[in-house]
Specification:
The chain is of the alpha/beta class and 397 residues long. The protein has helices spanning 19-24, 26-29, 35-44, 56-66, 99-110, 128-132, 145-158, 186-189, 202-205, 211-228, 274-277, 280-291, 298-306, 319-324, 338-341, 359-370, 382-389, and strands at 46-50, 70-74, 115-119, 137-140, 161-168, 171-177, 237-242, 247-252, 295-296, 312-315, 331-332, 351-354, 376-379. Strands 3-2-1-4-5-6-7-8 form an eight-stranded mixed β-sheet, sandwiched between helices. Helix 4 (56-66) packs parallel to helix 10.
């Protein structure tokens, strides 16, 4: 059932509009569910969007156009060419610029009446309370578990609404977490994060470019509903979208009475070390261990390719990655196939392994070492380094 607006009437009672604003928001004003009063609520509201990327783009574009009075943006990243396929807030001219500054410029162009605050920093347990204090709603547009748990816990402690969304490949989901309004929190759904590396990021697994547009717009719709006090919010309901099947499914979410944050016997009552909680130090240690294998630089690889000494050169990426770019002399043996195809390699000869960024090939070297190979090397930073330092015309993805 509909909930009343999350705003106290004193926040918007004396809000006024110019003639230009009345014209701008006229399609809202003539809706009986919104009217002038609803638009006053939107103008009086403040929303913090964590992330100005794939999800943040439609969230920020539509909330600015809707007339949210104050919008905060947290993002420490800069715009990259690989962002432009889905992060429609930014353009080609913005590549290399701060995402926050690019977003602020775009929002001001859409609606100069919006106050835009930018926080060009990582969102951490040290600065989170100070950043979120002025805002009514937090919208999670991130892609990492540390920030998701931090956002959740802080919203529970401060009784702020947390509008959640996530995307991967062709699938997305969205819901509203707000225990103070009767719904569950993120930890009720996911008490513990998955092991580091088990869930690939969009950079590792890819994402359909239009998908964040759909999920981000759902998040923006939920914010407008909660501010205006209309419709049924996604409290206790998770919407899942399958773009390939073009199907929406709804799942019921319930509060966990044993939840360590929002349960009656909560054991977590303040912000914690979220890197530690999500296993980031262990993941870094594992990465460093894998990186601490015999390696060569791309300059050394170039010299070996140009020289006459024989060696076996192995590309451990996937076939569809090889279709994007590769080196002719490399034999393709995807990492998952390496154990079954190890017999194709000779432990007595030099073996050099390469991948996109050096992580998978480092793991492959460890696998070979465990099988008795003593003459295996990893190409440090892989094809990324090759494109940067050897062949600037080599495709990067």
């Amino acid at each position: 059932m509909p909930l009343p607006s999350i705003l106290d009437p004193s926040r918007y009672a004396k809000t006024e509009f110019s003639n230009d604003e009345i014209a701008r928001y006229s399609r809202h004003l003539i809706m009986p569910e919104v009217t002038l009063e609803g638009q006053k609520k939107l103008k009086a509201a403040s929303i913090l969007c964590i992330g100005a990327g794939g999800l943040g783009s439609p969230i920020l574009l539509y909330l600015a156009a809707a007339g949210i009075g104050r919008i905060g943006i947290v993002d420490s990243d800069v715009v990259d060419f690989s962002n432009l396929q889905r992060q429609v807030l930014h353009g080609t001219k913005d590549v290399g610029r701060s995402k926050c500054k690019s977003a602020r410029e775009r929002i001001r162009d859409i609606n100069p009446n919006v106050q835009v605050d930018i926080y060009e920093t990582l969102f951490t347990s040290e600065n989170a309370r100070q950043i979120v204090e002025p805002y009514d709603i937090l919208i999670d547009g991130t892609d990492n578990f540390q920030t998701r748990y931090l956002t959740n816990d802080l919203c529970v402690f401060t009784k702020k609404v947390n509008i959640y969304g996530s995307i991967f490949r062709f699938d997305g989901q969205a819901t509203v977490f707000a225990p103070h309004l009767g719904g569950p929190c993120y930890r009720c759904m996911f008490p513990e994060p998955p092991p580091p590396g088990e869930v690939p990021t969009c950079a590792e697994g890819g994402v359909l470019g239009v998908l964040p547009g759909i999920i981000g717009v759902i998040q923006a719709v939920e914010a407008v509903k909660l501010i205006c006090g209309i419709g049924e919010p996604l409290l206790g309901r998770l919407v899942n979208f399958d773009a390939l099947a073009m199907k929406f499914r709804e799942f019921k979410l319930r509060r966990d009475p044993k939840c360590p944050v929002c349960g009656p016997n909560a054991t977590i009552t303040d912000l914690i070390d979220y890197d530690q909680f999500c296993g980031i130090p262990q993941a870094r240690a594992k990465h460093e261990a894998e990186a601490n294998v015999p390696h060569i630089t791309v300059e050394e690889l170039q010299a070996r390719l140009a020289g006459g000494a024989p060696f076996r050169f192995v590309d451990v990426r996937e076939p569809y990655e090889r279709d994007i770019c590769g080196l002719e002399k490399a034999t393709l043996i995807p990492l998952a196939q390496l154990p079954a195809r190890m017999s194709e390699l000779d432990s007595a000869e030099d073996t050099i392994l390469i991948c996109k960024n050096g992580a998978r090939s480092a793991h492959a070297v460890k696998m070979l070492q465990e099988a008795g190979f003593t003459r295996a090397w990893n190409v440090e930073r892989g094809f990324d380094a090759w494109a940067e330092r050897i062949d600037t015309g080599f495709p990067k993805y």
